[in-house]
UniProtKB/TrEMBL annotation:
The keyword Hydrolase applies. SUPFAM superfamilies: (Trans)glycosidases, beta-N-acetylhexosaminidase-like domain. This is Alpha-glucuronidase. It comes from Podospora appendiculata. Coiled coil: none annotated. Pfam families: Glyco_hydro_67C, Glyco_hydro_67M, Glyco_hydro_67N.
Amino acid sequence: MLWYTWGLLALSFGVVAENGLNGWLRYAPLPDELRQHASSLPSRAVIVALNETETSPVYVAGKELQAGLKGVLGYTLSLSHNLNLSASTNSSAIILVGTLAAYNLSVKHNVSTLAADGFWLNVKGGQVTILGQNERGALYGAFEYLSMIAQGDFSDVDLVSSPSAPIRWVNEWDNLDGTIERGYAGASIFFRNGAVVEDLTRAAQYARLLASIRINGIVLNNVNANATLLTAENMDGLGRIADAMRPYGVQVGISLNFASPQTLGGLATFDPLDPSVVGWWTDKTAQLYQRIPDFAGYLVKANSEGQPGPLTYNRTLADGANLFARAVLPHGGVVMFRAFVYNNHLDPSDWKADRANAAVDFFQHLDGHFLDNVVVQIKYGPIDFQVREPPSPLFAHLPHTNAAIELQISQEYLGQQSHLVYLAPLWKSILDFDLCVDGQPSLVRSILSGARFGRKLSGYAGVVNVGTNPNWLGSHMAMSNLFAFGHLAWDPTQNPQTLLETWTRLTFSLSPTVLSTVTSISMASWPAYENYTGNLGMQTLTDILYTHFGPNPASHDNNGWGQWTRADSTFIGMDRTVSNGTGFAGQYPPDIAAQFEAPATTPDELLLWFHHVPYTHRLRGDGKTVIQHLYDAHYAGAQTAQGFLAAWAALRDDDGGAAGAGAIDAERFDDVLFQLTYQAGHALVWRDAIAGFYHNLSWIADEHGRVGYHPHRIEAENMVLRGYVAVGVTPAVTASNGTAIVVADGGVRGEAVAVLDGVASGVYDIAIGYFDVFGGRAHYGAFINDEPLVEWIGDLEDRLGHVFSTKLDGHSATRVTVKGVGIERGDVLKVIGIADGGERAPLDYVAVLPAGVVD
Ligand code: GCU
């Protein structure tokens, strides 16, 4: 396809406020300069959608084309459902969408190779032909065409596109009560108060977004499933959801609770081989298919993290999966059986124990025992959606079993959508990994396409967790991850940056400045996040015992969860070697195993995943010691995050209005600005906590003298306090000097005062570190010589849209910054906090920062 050189054109944009509901399907009007290229598509064109049934994806495609061309070009085109009829209108241009069968094509040879869901898109001047292998494919082709014109691309194309794999599903972790496990964007759009919601408008809107990225299935409820989803009333509700999503070609499935025959059905057992249990599931499944004839199938989390499963009865995991497979088989359904099975009560004193070994230990010997409509769904790494993991070795061990990869769009361990982290490069590092099974090229993506082992059913599952927030994920920027997920599932050879650029043009603007800004900060975001949260393969050093958001490296060790770092005063890292460790490295095929067995051949980014080394061990890449690299990475990562904010802020118009020469509406510009401001502050919390933690543990100084040294900060506990008292913070490394102040019990108002007599007169940035906990919305005001400087509220739970913590810790630690403040030596700085409920207006420090210093 041909891209116009936007850089040479002076584009002008008309922008209206937007809330993100349409994601990348905005169909924003093209700038006049680009509209002129549309001359090949006359405004008298006729759209022909070869299906008259309103709930058919082909019909929907016609409507979508109509709406898209109206939005992008301002055309009002007529829509017909009969080719012959429309031909009689004598229009010079026809945009045709339908299935191959409906068009009755005298099959072109390349079109005949289309796989299920595939499409052929042919644009020749004013003639546009979009033919799907099935109805869904036709809709995908229509979205592809709309994506082109929304980007101002009117070139002729002849595109034949088929999916890499048949399973391209999203998983939602919604609970029946309306909450969402690891959801960061409000309540469920599907469930409330134990039932399916009445108004399914959002479900249909979500299906539209999913169809546009070629997702064909959705599992609606949490893998930690509630059996009452299978009551008659709730199955009726599921039927309504399926009806809402069917026009977009999205089939619904559900997660099951293995014990349902007992807990819901009242049977004495849930043994998968017991005839009464088999009968119960057969009946339930038939009842579901009565309501939803195209029901996609089941997702099963069994014998994991307290969930019931077949092991309870000494049956195998394959017995468990096949129970459901037999139930759905006559109806054409699929069972996604999760490989996330492990013991969460491991003995940390056992050097050889390793949670990473679990998937292969539990599943390898079952290869070939699963029925053909079972797909084993494997998390990308051996632990749990960490910022860096090697690919799960289980992908190499199931040549006779269908496999799917489980990716997480929901950023559970990656900043929970409050940090910008573009995940496609992470996913690509896994998909492009060559596992060298039997010494043959074995890219993870060719295992997932089914090609490597000759499997028919395989693919991709993405945990998304959209919520009622109008922008779906609680973050406009995070939507690039959903977009990239769908497109990579379709074609995993695609380039993450190219996908990002497409998403940016469709989501924000065709402005070259916006494009380069969003691209550069997004592409830098995963490396930055890795740098400030846990590098060298240590995993995300978050609080694994609480909310998986802020820093708490100590929480990783000395418990049964097995996300260990084995850090002590001299050494750090898991020994996963065969020679001396847990043996995990040996789960890979020999070429890869040999590479991971020795530090000298292990890539630096996975060094501490595989090896227990002294802090003074030198890295292959930059020759630094592990500890110095760790310090430097955390400082560099946090610095990069400051740059995201600066780059975005630079898009602001000179007149302070809408951003980027009017290229982005003010509403979304401000939302993103707010989140990047938050991230810049929280990245410093991460930096200080992690660097401080390992400094305290190793007692090895930072060569650059930064760690633990904050010459520009005034600790709140050292200010003159009225109504405030000092409290210790846990973990101590998440507060400056380990201590904060809170309004004393029984009081409402506190005051902290410092005389700036150590500060030379000049212009400074003032940063105030505080904690924003769930349980109240405290008010704060800062003053210089009693002149107001800044006022704010501890309301991140509203503004970032999810709850971090009820305590003072690494989740709630945050800060506000005021730039360019004129200070005279001896000025009096005062912060007043008004407590609200459980939020006792906690303060950590005030920093008076000379130009260019961020600390
Ligand atoms: C993670 C996550 C849980 C989830 C589990 C799973 O451990 O924290 O909330 O239930 O993965 O994928 O089953």
